[in-house]
Design brief:
The chain contains 10 helices and 10 strands. It is an alpha/beta fold and 234 residues long.
Length: 234
């Protein structure tokens, strides 16, 4: 099964590089995901291809228009925009959304179709939230100028969970957040560099001890850096 993702945005060129390299390229080449980027300017019903306007009531900045977003989605899916969120996740990228995490990435990786709406300027018309988007996602407590970078981040987090995206899919079971823990530390050659050594257990060849050490390190690192992950298990 191929996951089909659609990104509606005002600066599609910002997605060109992230989609053409690394995991995203591998996932697309493997047929795990298809990504379609739609330029809201090109799909705008406005004769001058405008996508924004001044906010009612005054204030700084420009607001992404609801008619532009609705008609853009309808031109691609040939269905009423408000009905689409009943068929698949329609996601608005916004700092006001629920914070994105690995559990959400895993859930989205099981979908057949994903739609991302990328805001820009001062914000989006509230009717987009109320009637079109069924989900709101934030990368964290900070503000970007638009949703394109956020969409690229979410897409990669989802795509790498799809079959065929990674060279070694076993790594998914051990990386950070996979088991509610941060990942254990890694080392590689050289074994000694400027007096900085590798823990003896990792070069011992004793796989049982290595496994125990890694589990202990993951737990200690999580307790030190993200104790909230351990609290969630209680």
């Amino acid at each position: 099964m191929t996951l089909e993702a659609h990104v509606f945005c005002t600066l599609p060129e910002m997605l060109a590089s992230p989609l053409a390299a690394g995991i995203m390229k591998r996932a697309q080449d493997a047929g795990a995901i298809e990504v379609h980027v739609h330029d809201l300017h090109a799909l705008s019903p406005d004769p001058h291809h405008k996508v924004d306007d001044c906010p009612y009531g005054g204030g700084p900045g420009m607001v992404l228009r609801v008619d532009v977003v609705a008609q853009a989605l309808e031109s691609i899916f040939d269905a009423d925009a408000a009905s689409l969120r009943d068929r698949f996740p329609v996601i608005l990228l916004t700092p006001q959304g629920k914070r994105f995490d690995q559990a959400r990435a895993r859930a989205l990786s099981h979908e057949q179709t994903l739609v991302f709406i990328c805001g820009r300027y001062e914000g989006v018309d509230e009717r987009i939230r109320e009637h079109i988007a069924g989900h709101e996602i934030s990368l964290g407590d900070f503000v970007l100028s638009g949703g394109e970078i956020a969409a690229a981040a979410v897409l990669e987090a989802v795509a790498r969970l799809l079959p065929g995206a990674l060279g070694n899919e076993e790594s998914l079971s051990e990386e950070s957040f996979a088991a509610g823990r941060l990942e254990y530390p890694h080392y590689t050659r050289p074994a000694e560099f400027r007096g900085w050594g590798v823990p003896d257990v990792l070069v011992s060849g004793d796989h049982a001890r290595i496994k125990e050490w890694r589990e202990q390190q993951a737990l200690e690192r999580t307790r030190e850096r993200r104790p909230d992950l351990l609290e969630e298990e209680r």
